[in-house]
Design brief:
The protein is built from 29 helices and 14 strands. The protein is α+β, with helices and mostly antiparallel strands. A hairpin with a 2-residue loop joins strand 2 and strand 3. Helix 1 packs across helix 9, helix 18 packs across helix 22 and helix 18 packs parallel to helix 23.
């Protein structure tokens, strides 16, 4: 076997990719042992032929497939059509065109008695297509099935070949016949002298004589001509005739799977090999408007190991990947499915193309990006958004005709995140960015009645999100500690139920929960939990704290709902009290982190930070009793409740140190002995009382709480 590198056959543009398939398909018909693989951005052949034999095959032995479309205007079968090439084939005597001549005559017979002033439309066209499908020999059916799908009430047309073999006014079949006349001698077996040079250029990228000034259609945007296409203001389209011939021949393998999935979806674009609905994400050249007007996306497989044509045909015949148990329906499903599968039948990557409306209303196969396939299946934390069918419901809602632009933007950002992170282990900054986005999405949904009726809340996310978002910064630790705030088993009060109007026990909007059976006996449905993040961060936090203290009374909680699986260190809290530098980051992270399960903190170190003694007294007053019992500073028989009015005094400015005095009295009355004399209490000098009020909501590590207790409370040894 000889190895021949076809430097003219590359993954982009689409014309060159199809040309590569055309070469393999045509060679395999005479030399079935021929194999091919993609290497270094070119197709590499393993074939019994040498390079001279390969050129001889196409120049002298190649038998063109009968490419025709008698159902289309411009195909050569109607009065106003260019008939020169079609008639030249019919008049030819060369054996290599025998099958072509027979098929053209069959098509002419099928049109006998029909009005030839214009191509048929509607039911007449459907009837002609059915008749042609029955008349054509097997050798011509691959072309028919690549161009037309006869299924259901009306014909459908694979986007790869336009609408049944034409793209607007450009009929691929008539142009194919014209290009054949330029590369083959239709009246003899000796091709024109330019044909050999054109073939070398098509196969090996060699320089060749001037191109033919003809259109190539949607397959090669760079050769379509137009403004700025060359020197000067404008340029005509120009092509190598062999490129066009081999490109059309290479489109035929995509016929095999044309009907496999049609029943699964009413949109025909989903029924063809590696073809899905377009998504306006994952590429800088694709926008939301592009996706809406696109014919679809083609994901062309690139395989790294030599394969026969029949193996590649089988791959294309299946032409699908599945996301879980469902076929991939759009580009987002496709990229997720590819990475969740790991290596896909030897395919090492996919070249993504969008059939986008460009240059007026013409469609061009625009290369979007290369998607590499990982060797091992990779679990993506983003897959958790499939819970309760949330992702699909949100995407459907956020692309509706009357949806607010905010939802369109959020959907685009989320889809882009999937494209960027599929198949990768995202960095902490990436995960944080997605959490911020999910917090924005949840907030937008919660503020739209239409959205609440259409989309459930963002599903509860696992601990993996919290762990992967951890960048080791104080801001993250503070946000994580706040996000883990909870209530009791009988009265759960997760922070997400305060930030968003969601039920604390289920993944349902509170509005919906209040209308269901049993809502009247559900304590969460009888009071307002939701307060949101109002104002700046200190204002928002002390607002949340005040509400939690009130809810503790309403639900008759045994514990203050200020516990969290995670806590902050003294250093973290000291930094928060000193400065507002972290406020924006904490506020941005908190909504998204509240959607996550917060893992149990294994860190018990207090930290080296120093907190004001006055703040320590305030903080111990709002420390859950179970923590104080575990520290041994509060006996099992004693209770500690929040001093009424203490928080209000603090927010009001702590005049005359009233909040600290109230804290001292409550601690003393509960059996906790502060080391300070009631007439010599420490003050919050240098600390903003409002900021101190906000900090009281932030849970501490167990060790940090113990350090505070040791600093400001008497122990049995010091009493």
């Amino acid at each position: 076997m000889n190895e021949i590198v076809l430097t003219g056959c590359t993954p982009t543009p689409l014309a060159n990719y199809l040309k590569a398939l055309g070469v393999l398909r045509l060679l395999a018909a005479h030399h079935p042992q021929t194999r091919a693989a993609w290497r270094n951005e070119t197709l590499v052949l393993h074939t019994p032929l040498d390079r001279i034999g390969l050129e001889h095959f196409f120049l002298h032995d190649y038998q063109p497939t009968p490419i025709m479309a008698p159902w289309n205007g411009g195909s050569g079968f109607y009065e106003k059509d260019n008939k020169v090439a079609l008639e030249a084939i019919l008049d030819s005597t060369t054996p290599r065109l025998g099958l072509y001549r027979d098929c053209l005559r069959m098509a002419d017979s099928a049109l006998a008695g029909a009005d030839r002033t214009a191509s048929p439309k509607g039911d007449e066209k459907a009837e002609l297509l059915t008749r042609m499908r029955g008349l054509l020999p097997d050798e011509a059916l691959d072309w028919f099935d690549a161009a037309v799908l006869l299924a259901g009430d009306s014909p459908q047309y694979p986007p790869l070949l336009g609408t049944g073999g034409n793209d607007g006014r450009l009929d691929f079949t008539n142009n194919f016949m014209q290009r054949l006349g330029e590369v083959l001698d239709l009246s003899a077996d000796n091709p024109p002298c330019e044909s050999s040079d054109w073939l070398k250029s098509a196969l090996f990228g060699k320089a060749s004589p001037g191109m033919v000034k003809k259109a190539i259609g949607q397959f090669s945007p760079g050769q379509a001509g137009g403004s700025n296409a060359s020197t000067g203001f404008d340029a005509d389209a120009s092509i190598n005739p062999w490129d066009f011939v081999l490109m059309i021949e290479g489109a035929l393998p995509f016929a095999a799977a044309a009907v496999r999935r049609n029943a699964d979806d009413p949109l025909g674009v989903l029924s063809y090999p590696f073809t899905v609905r377009a998504v306006g994400a994952g590429s800088g050249s694709l926008g939301g408007g592009d996706a809406a007007a696109a014919r679809g996306e083609l994901w062309m497989p690139l395989w790294g190991q030599p394969a026969t044509y029949m193996e590649i045909r089988t791959l294309l015949a299946e032409g699908r990947v599945a996301l879980g148990k469902k076929p991939a329906r759009d580009a987002l499903d496709f990229i997720r499915a590819v990475h969740s599968l790991g290596a896909y039948r030897g395919v090492r990557s996919f070249q993504r193309y969008g059939l986008l409306m460009r240059s007026g209303k013409a469609y061009l196969a625009t290369p979007l990006e290369r998607v590499e396939v990982s060797d091992e299946p990779s679990a993506n934390i983003l897959d958790e958004l499939d819970q309760h069918d949330w992702l699909a419901q949100f995407r459907r809602f956020a692309q509706g005709d009357n949806v607010a632009n905010r939802f369109l933007s959020l959907r685009k950002q989320l889809e882009t995140a999937f494209f960027e992170l599929s198949g990768q282990r995202p960095a902490a900054s990436d995960v944080q960015s997605i959490l911020k986005l999910l917090g924005e999405i949840q907030s937008a949904l919660a503020n739209s009645r239409k959205a609440i009726e259409s989309v459930p809340p963002v599903p509860r996310l696992s601990e993996r999100w919290t762990q992967r978002a951890d960048d080791g910064t104080p801001a993250f630790r503070l946000a994580r500690a706040l996000a883990g705030l909870k209530g009791e088993a009988d009265a759960p009060l997760p922070l997400r139920a305060q930030l968003f109007p969601v039920h604390p026990r289920s993944n349902r909007w509170m509005e919906d929960a209040r209308t269901t059976k049993g809502a009247s006996s559900d304590p969460a449905c009888r009071v307002r939990l939701h307060t949101g993040l109002q104002g700046n961060l200190p204002e928002a936090l002390h607002g949340l704290l005040a509400r939690r203290l009130w809810l503790a009374e309403q639900f008759a909680m045994h514990e203050l709902p200020l516990q969290s699986p995670a806590g902050a260190s003294l250093d973290d809290l000291a930094a928060f009290l000193r400065s507002d530098a972290m406020d924006r980051r904490i506020a941005a992270l908190l909504p998204g982190l509240s959607l996550c399960t917060i893992p149990q903190d294994t860190e018990r170190h207090a930290g080296d930070g120093v907190l004001p003694a006055a703040f320590a007294l305030l903080k111990l007053c709002l420390t859950p009793q179970s923590t104080l019992h575990a520290l041994g500073v509060l006996s099992e028989s004693d209770r500690l409740s929040a001093p009424p009015g203490m928080l209000m005094q603090l927010v009001a400015g702590n005049a005359d140190n009233r909040a600290v005095r109230m804290a001292w009295r409550r601690l003393h009355a509960s059996g906790l002995n502060p080391v300070f004399h009631p007439h010599a209490l420490p003050s919050l000098d240098g600390t903003d009382p409002r900021r101190a009020a906000a900090a009281l909501l932030i849970p501490l590590h167990f060790g940090a709480t113990g350090a505070l207790a040791r600093d400001v409370l008497k122990t049995p040894e010091t009493a």
